[in-house]
Amino acid sequence: MNIKINFKKQVFNRPNENLIFFVDENFNISSLKKSISNSDYSYVSDLIKTRDTKKKIITFNISSKKKIILVSINKNITNSEIENLGADCYNIIKELKKSNFFINSDTIIQNTKNLVGHFLHGIRLKSYLFEKYKSNKTKKNIDINIFGKNIPTAKDQVKFNAIEEGTFYARDLVSEPGNVLHPDEYAKRINSLKKFGLKINVYDEKKLKKLGMNTLLGVGQGSTRGSYLVTMEWKGLRNKSKPLAFVGKGVCFDTGGISLKPAKFMEDMTYDMAGSAVVVGLMKSLALRKAKVNAIGVVGLVENMPGGNAQRPGDIVKSYSGKTVEILNTDAEGRLVLADAITYTEKKFKPKFIVDLATLTGAIIVSLGSEYAGLFSNDDKLSKQLIDAGENVEEKVWRMPLNKNYDKLIDSKNADMQNINYVGGAGSTTAAQFLQRFILNKTPWAHLDIAGMAFSKYGGALNSGGATGYGVRLLNKLIEDNYE
Are residues 279 and 342 in the same domain? Predict the structure, then answer.
């Protein structure tokens, strides 16, 4: 579905078109008198008395060629609630035969900043479809024309568009099948983002071996595809201030390796690279909106396969940090990829903070379902900033515990640590505790386990099912509210 949005500061006069108006929570339509005919006003006034009071959006068929849609805006409505109304409105207009809609922004009486911008943002986010491999694609185009003074500024239009494009890019990456988006192809796609002003460095296996990134390389050594670490740099400030760093797990397909997963639902393991997709989508967004911040994105790209050269349970590998890891389960591979990526990011870029994202554990889904991502952190300030940003954009996080007493569950008799807790319990926490060991210089750090959030079979408020792009808007908000 293609949504085209046109902004025009001119007099609104479209008597025979589909019209969208904003009204207050009581559906008071007095503000519409100048925008619709007297007969239409009387008709709507009569019908509105019998409305379903639970509905926030009501439609009126004025004729076979004309429909009026009223969107109710509460007095203290939040931006997220406005975006959800936009998504609900999209669900209505996509079913209509007409493809042109007109919004008169001058009818807005609520003093809500960027109301129209957030409403359209919700429409656009909900409209996403991944139909690349379908023979019969959705061909309908929808034009939404906005008139009046209450439209987003040019700067805000760029911002909304950048966030949408970054979210869509992340969704595209997660939606691709494993035979298409393997590490070799993924590295090429990231490299193509140079055109937006990002500085990209791709480290292949030869370079990674020289650096000593053996925990990352061990995960991918059973695959015929390459393994990579890719760094993306955005310099939105002229000064040399410490960058913000974002690290993502990019396991393009996860069979579990020698510790093979069950066959049922293994096809979903194409989205085990969702953490990296969020980082890539975020960096694209920052570049598109020319964010006034210095930021680093780092992703580890591998494919976890049970080949003849695959890593075995019982292997011991030396990480980039110098610490050794005993591999007890090859399906606990994401933490191995992140371990080298996190230490490298800290040592190379000396960032203000590090946020890593990964579809790391099924245990987090048991704990939080698909409502919250798990947040683990060594820093209270960063944690609060993430929690607040998540509430603002409805990409929520819930802080989970870290404690040195969990360390004994991942201590190894044969190496510095083991990659899984065999005692049982605290699966997500021990995974995060493992990652924390690779923060060597007390850098503020947060780990987001997004296993329950990256993909939805049934759809959510702002997506129609499949890849959600969860995290791009969250991290954009974190940066916008605290670091720009």
Answer: yes
